[in-house]
Amino acid sequence: GAVVSQHPSRVICKSGTSVKIECRSLDFQATTMFWYRQFPKQSLMLMATSNEGSKATYEQGVEKDKFLINHASLTLSTLTVTSAHPEDSSFYICSARARSGVGYTFGSGTRLTVV
Amino acid sequence: GEDVEQSLFLSVREGDSSVINCTYTDSSSTYLYWYKQEPGAGLQLLTYIFSNMDMKQDQRLTVLLNKKDKHLSLRIADTQTGDSAIYFCAESIPPDSWGKLQFGAGTQVVVTP
Question: Is the Cα torsion angle A9, A77, A89, B101 positive or negative in sign?
């Protein structure tokens, strides 16, 4: 079945630094990638949607200059958390959708801790 | 508030059936999904149902959809300890059926021996 590889699985960084999270679709072309944030014991909050080759569409309240999304190819999307602060600590999950097909394939998530 | 609502917790004994309920608000949703999340992991698609279906069964999983009441349920037969997880229902948000998903808050299912 469809697989999305998300790296890193865990990262600890210092305040003020930037962190890049990668999601790769391994056996299909991800025409659309979704980036979510999940707080402990809460649901997934959609941050942005990106289509290959075009700029990401951000949800209301999500700072696009802070959460940089790049979807340069049909198999790779990246989320860069710039100038990270402790309040950015969270679980980030990507989800990919192919041009055809019904489901959305999720990455395994990245636990970001900013100290 | 969220447009998809779920009860937050369910405790079930091993071998019994589990029923997780979900209500949604957008009657034009095309697909409705059930995902499973284990601790520290991403979401695993369990099953989905198209909005013109009433029921779908896949091995131990049965999905019931009452479109009139906007009610979705997931029944897990012969619940096992490995079924302990958080279960999310989600609806695809129109007008693009293949676009965003709106998730419920998740139901924590705990299976006891």
Answer: negative
Percentage helix, strand, coil for chain A under 3-state DSSP, each rounded to 5? 5, 55, 45
Contact list, B99 vs chain A (CB under 8 Å): 32, 49
Residues 8-67 of chain B whose Cβ lies under 8 A from any Cβ of chain A: 31, 33, 35, 40-45, 48
DSSP symbols for A6-32: EE-SEEEE-TT--EEEEEEESSS-EEE
Residue from A96, A68, A70 nearest A81 by CA: A68
Contacts of B63 in chain A (CB under 8 A): none
Q: Which two tokens stand for residue B74?
A: 């997931």
Whether residue B2 lies within 8 A of chain A, CB to CB, comes out as yes
> Which residue, B28, B107, B93, is CA-closest to A59?
B93
Per-residue pLDDT of chain A (115 residues; tens, 9 = 90+): 788 999 999 999 999 999 999 999 998 888 889 999 998 878 899 999 988 878 899 999 999 999 999 988 889 999 999 999 999 999 999 999 887 766 789 999 999 999 9
